[in-house]
Design a protein that fits this description.
Blueprint (H helix, E strand, L loop, with lengths): L16 E5 L8 H12 L6 E4 L2 H10 L4 H10 L3 H4 L11 H7 L1 H8 L2 E3 L2 H10 L12 E7 L4 E5 L4 H8 L4 E3 L2 E3 L2 E5 L1 H4 L3 H11 L3 E6 L14 H19 L9 E6 L10 H14 L1 H8 L2 H7 L4 E6 L2 E2 L9
Parallel strand pairs: 1-2, 1-9, 2-4, 3-6, 9-10, 10-11
Antiparallel strand pairs: 4-5, 4-8, 7-8, 11-12
Helix pairs in contact: 1-3, 1-12, 2-8, 7-8
């Protein structure tokens, strides 16, 4: 699915804006579909990209020069989670039962700081980014991680792109924390799953005030029987922590001009629905066409539209956007 190329409003092709991409595990694949739709619609590329975890992966690759169609092809034709991992874990598609019976998880967790060292994923990220540094990116980029030794958020804006992404995606329990420069780094979502604050601060230096954010996480209550194993409980604790933190800090200055929420009930560890997730990202852009047109529109109408803070997007139980936006 793609947005129509013909617009009612004239698009400002020179609009400067920051694109912020949330974490979300496998659900973050919707970011690639959304970027494809933006390109196909003829909207201008972002002037700055900020991402966390899977948002850092997609955003970092895009900033390094991998455009939507190429990223989509890679995800559909080449992305195999088993290539990234030294071992599989509960909740992922694959020989989960056999893996559990080996006791490998128990052994790793009791003797190592994570199920997987993250070595393979780092090597693949280095290949995909062509060993580029932030300074080599075609679009300015930043991502975040958290140093659990000092209890501080770390913002990456220079150095190795692959190593920064590896730090940002270090989901606790699954990947070992990333050790670099005396810091023990884990998933940036712990501090800021949707790094709007970081994007706003970086944007000031670049003359960027407008933010378009894409969030894959939509809080839902779940039944107790859905928490079938320890990893499910860890993931739910992680999501709860983010939910509580965002609920306590949802002030006016933390909201973007346009927030696109793209969510369904997919597990953060289920990479078997790659095509569906890409299509969901494209569908969200199509459903949000009116809001996107307003955000990118030229002239006085565009200026007025970007003064408002608007939520749009798509979720499992249907479209919400504009005046009918759900906020619960």
């Amino acid at each position: 699915m793609y947005l129509a190329l013909i617009k009612v409003m004239k698009i400002n092709k020179k609009l400067k804006y920051a694109l912020v991409l949330s974490g979300g595990g496998a659900r973050g694949l919707v970011h690639a579909g959304f970027l494809c739709a933006l390109e196909n619609a003829g909207y201008p590329p972002p002037s700055l990209i900020a991402g966390t975890s899977m948002g850092a992966i997609v955003g970092g690759l895009y900033a390094a020069g991998m455009r939507g169609p190429e990223m989509k092809r890679y995800i559909l034709d080449e992305l195999e989670v088993s290539d990234f991992m030294e071992s599989l874990f509960p909740g992922m598609d694959g020989p989960v039962g056999k893996f559990l019976r080996t006791g490998q998880i128990i052994g790793n967790v009791t003797t190592k700081p994570g199920i997987d060292s993250g070595y393979k994923v780092l090597k693949i990220l280095e290949k995909l980014t062509e060993n580029k540094k932030f300074e080599d990116c075609t679009i300015p980029f930043l991502c975040n991680a958290v140093d659990i030794l000092a209890g501080e958020e770390v913002i990456y804006r220079s150095g190795s792109l692959a190593r920064a992404i590896r730090a940002s995606m270090s989901f606790p329990f699954v990947f070992e924390p990333f050790l670099e420069n005396g810091k023990y780094l884990v998933d940036g979502a712990i501090a800021e799953n949707l790094p709007i604050k970081s994007a706003r601060e970086a944007g000031r230096a670049l003359g960027i005030r407008r933010i378009l954010a894409v969030d894959t996480r939509r809080w839902r209550n779940v039944p107790a029987q859905s928490l079938k194993n320890g990893l499910n409980v860890v993931l739910r604790c992680f999501e709860t922590m983010i939910h509580v933190s965002e609920s306590e800090n949802e002030f006016e200055d933390t909201l973007p001009r346009l927030l696109i929420t793209i969510s369904d009930k997919s597990s953060a560890f289920d990479f078997s629905r790659k095509r569906e997730l890409l299509e969901l990202g494209e569908a969200a852009a199509e459903k949000s066409k009116a809001e996107l047109d307003s955000f990118f529109s030229a002239g006085f109408k565009g200026v007025l539209a970007r003064r408002r803070k608007v939520r749009a997007g798509i979720e499992l139980d249907g479209f919400y956007g504009g005046k009918n936006a759900k906020t619960g």
